[in-house]
Specification:
Number of strands: 8
Mean pLDDT: 94
Structural class: alpha/beta
CATH superfamily of the largest domain: Glucose-6-phosphate isomerase like protein, domain 1
Order of helices and strands: HEHEHEHHHEHEEHEHEH
CATH class of the largest domain: Alpha Beta
Radius of gyration: 20 Å
CATH topology of the largest domain: Rossmann fold
Distance between the termini: 17 Å
Number of domains: 2
Oligomer: single chain
CATH architecture of the largest domain: 3-Layer(aba) Sandwich
Number of helices: 10
Strand content: 15-25%
Length: 284
């Protein structure tokens, strides 16, 4: 849950609950407050942070250090990826310890993880389509990012990056919630970024894309290389290499970060020091 909300309501903390606190800086005020409430209730705290010696690292019972290196820019990029990877590895480790993940599957996950640096490099090699989209849609358009399953959070992250560094209006939504309200926003001034890599929900994402196109919305899709179905219903497609579905957020977020970057630089924004923001939120 969001630490900023969790600390003000009834909570599930207790001796039988592990609280996982995620903070790049280890100094986020709301996260630290929620951690202290958890510990007062007898909950053990596992911190996921990038800064050794931070308040969170000192106060937690156990720490997973991200080891992503110093991130100077206010908008998180590599530390976001590191958080995703650390939490995926944590889930795999716990699955193995609990006996619900076989040894063979665990090794397969590790093997796929080792491929990611090379696959990420391939995404970074070709940015032509991303640059084109940034030029086309950075003026006069709103942005809607949609995703499902593993890439629901990717949609939120993509929209956040666009807001943070380009100052353009962007919102992230669960694609399954489109008919509950967000679809009303779609017109010819709406650019929808659909995160639709190969996986269990690809067909559902294609259906969502078709609904947006039917209402004159413009669609930029993030799709697995060679996916003709997604390409056939999209205005623009940025391809990522095929990978284990659970790792698709690691590759899919890169084009979204680049889209925000190229839109921002094209508009003359300071991408390293966005207005009104600080690297660490140390006050409420």
């Amino acid at each position: 849950g969001l630490a900023s909300e969790l600390r003000y309501g009834d909570h599930p903390f207790g001796p039988g609950v592990l609280t996982v606190a995620v903070s790049q800086s280890g100094e986020t005020a709301d996260t630290l407050a929620a951690v202290r409430i958890a510990q007062e209730a007898g909950s053990k705290v596992l911190a996921v942070t990038n800064v050794k010696g931070s308040t969170l690292a000192r106060e937690a019972d156990q720490v997973l250090f991200m080891r992503a290196g110093l991130e100077v820019g206010v908008a998180a990029t590599k530390t976001y990826t590191s958080q995703v990877m650390n939490l995926l590895f944590l889930a795999a480790h716990l699955g193995r310890k609990r006996g619900v993940l076989s040894g063979a599957r665990f090794q397969q996950i590790l093997k796929e993880a080792r491929r990611l640096p090379g696959l990420a490099g391939r995404v970074l090699e070709d940015t032509k389509e991303i640059r084109k989209c940034a030029r086309k849609f950075s003026r006069g358009y709103d942005f809607m990012y949609i995703g499902r399953r593993y890439n629901l959070a990717t949609a939120y992250e993509g929209a956040l990056k666009m807001k943070e560094i380009s100052y353009l209006h962007a919102e992230g939504y669960g694609a399954g919630e489109m008919k509950h309200g967000p679809l009303a926003l779609v017109d010819d001034k709406m650019t929808c970024v659909a995160i639709a890599p190969a996986g269990r929900v690809t067909e559902k994402m294609i259906s969502n894309i078709q609904e947006i196109r039917a209402r004159r919305g413009h669609v930029i899709s993030i799709a697995t290389k060679g996916d003709r179905q997604v390409r056939s219903v999209s205005d623009h497609v940025v391809e990522i290499p095929a990978c284990e579905e659970m790792f698709s957020p690691v590759l899919a977020v890169i084009p979204l970060q680049l889209l925000a970057y190229y839109a921002a630089t094209g508009l003359g924004r300071d991408v390293d020091q966005p207005r009104n923001l600080a690297k660490s939120v140390t006050v409420e």
